[in-house]
Amino acid sequence: MELCIKNGTVVDWSGSFKGDIYIKDGIISEIGRSLNKDCNTIDAKGLVVMPGFVDLHVHFREPGYTYKEDMESGSKAAVKGGYVMVNLMANTNPVCSTVEIANRVSERAKEVGLVEVNQVLSITKDFTGDDLSHLEPINKGEVKILSEDGKDVMNSEVMLNAMIKAKEKDITVMCHCENHDLSKIDMRLAENTMTWRNLTLAQYSGCKAHFAHVSTKESMEYIIRSKRKGHKVTCEVAPHHLIHTDKKEYRVNPPLRDEEDIDYLREAIKLGYVDAIATDHAPHSEEDKKNGAPGISGIETAFSLCYTELVKGGWIDLCKLSELMSKRPSEILKVNKGTVDIGYDGDLVLIDIEKSYRIESEKFLSKGKNTPFNDMKVYGEVRATIKSGKVVYEKKEDDLDDYR
Ligand code: DOR
């Protein structure tokens, strides 16, 4: 299979140029000007062509909660948002604690055929908080990430042992930092104390630790300090923790924070301390949301929100946004994506960065319509997503979205 994308403005983390990209057998095979190929061709004149986005933090709810989202609705939402790969959390039903369940999820993703997935395994077996027996049979290379997302591991000895095991097997531990004893008292204290604990345990054990949805100034300060000391720490920030909204009470975990936090996180991004922007796409049904379920359905709006607020807002340029949404997440997941160069996966997103639109949650392809950003005017519309040289999403002029 071959595809040529011509006349676009190609932008990745390293810079930009006007030119053509030729993808053969799923891989970028040639880059240049005026490439002459006798194959399926897309004219990207007036569009920006970037590496497809890779999301480190996503809930597709399969198995068990498919009324909130399933592989098909989640995948459609993802490619509409420009994503080519998602890292799926383990808070499913059953909890994803075995390689067998993870493989089944990956098979489902292949059946749907739109987006690539990496399925995370829980840190403790079935989120029990103390049982690590499920980590024993994992072979090296079989699992990339462990996470107790939605929770945290409260017992420090258990967390330390999990990190030691993870190091042995070259697995990254993704930390949802929250002390549940303190959540009822102060959600800031709950995040800050566990960020500090998890950083300390990661340093002690020497395991690779990735900090999920960092939302407070203090947590980011601890992470920056650790990075400056050269520890193996990476972190992500979610778009909703970077953007001011008048719906500050909107339920999400960690909660929407203060202006001071938002500015600090933006500054941390600008200074290069943040590795990735990850959505924490957490779709819920209307009823669950009414009953207080925390989360934001964010995978369809992440690029536009970040482009509008961070790039048009003058904090970073588009190359840096590409690094945060494609290059660094690809490195953390150890996949051959995130860069437009010969030999990399032919996974691209075509964007009209001039186009503005209003977010309409009713039009989300995700089953979850839950967002505090409804009706917000944003810039940057995804026009097409290409996965392994195949168009998996295309925005039609008449506003109907098309999936291949
Ligand atoms: O807001 C959230 N929703 N935070 C989490 O950590 C979990 C997620 C979910 O699964 O709904």
Write the layout of secondary structure elements.
Blueprint: E1 2-12, E2 15-24, E3 27-32, E4 41-43, E5 48-51, E6 53-58, H1 71-80, E7 83-88, H2 99-112, E8 116-119, E9 145-147, H3 156-168, E10 172-175, H4 180-183, H5 187-205, E11 209-211, H6 217-228, E12 233-237, H7 259-270, E13 276-277, H8 286-290, H9 302-311, H10 318-333, E14 348-358, E15 377-387, E16 390-395, E17 401-403
Parallel strand pairs: 1-4, 1-5, 6-7, 7-8, 9-10, 10-11, 11-12, 12-13
Antiparallel strand pairs: 1-2, 2-3, 5-14, 14-15, 15-16, 16-17
Helix pairs in contact: 3-5, 5-6, 6-7
The structure holds (4S)-2,6-dioxohexahydropyrimidine-4-carboxylic acid (DOR).
CATH domain class of the largest domain: Alpha Beta
The CATH topology name of the largest domain reads TIM Barrel
Total number of beta strands: 17
- Coarse shape: globular
Please count the helical segments.
Answer: 10
Task: Tell me the helix content.
Answer: 25-40%
Biggest sheet descriptor: 9 strands, mixed
The distinct bound ligands, ions and cofactors come out as: (4S)-2,6-dioxohexahydropyrimidine-4-carboxylic acid
- Structural class call reads alpha/beta
Order of helices and strands: EEEEEEHEHEEHEHHEHEHEHHHEEEE
Tally of discrete structural domains: 2
Proportion of beta-strand residues:
15-25%
Structural description of this entry:
The protein is built from ten helices and 17 strands. With 404 residues, it is of the alpha/beta class. It has two domains: 106 residues, Urease, subunit C, domain 1 (Roll); 282 residues, Metal-dependent hydrolases (TIM Barrel). The strands form three sheets. Strands 1, 2, 3, 4, 5, 14, 15, 16 and 17 form a nine-stranded mixed β-sheet that branches. Strands 9-10-11-12-13 form a five-stranded parallel β-sheet. The protein has a three-stranded parallel β-sheet with strand order 6-7-8. α3 crosses α5 and α6 packs parallel to α7. The longest helix is centred in the middle third of the chain and has 19 residues. It starts with a strand and ends with a strand. Bound molecules: (4S)-2,6-dioxohexahydropyrimidine-4-carboxylic acid.
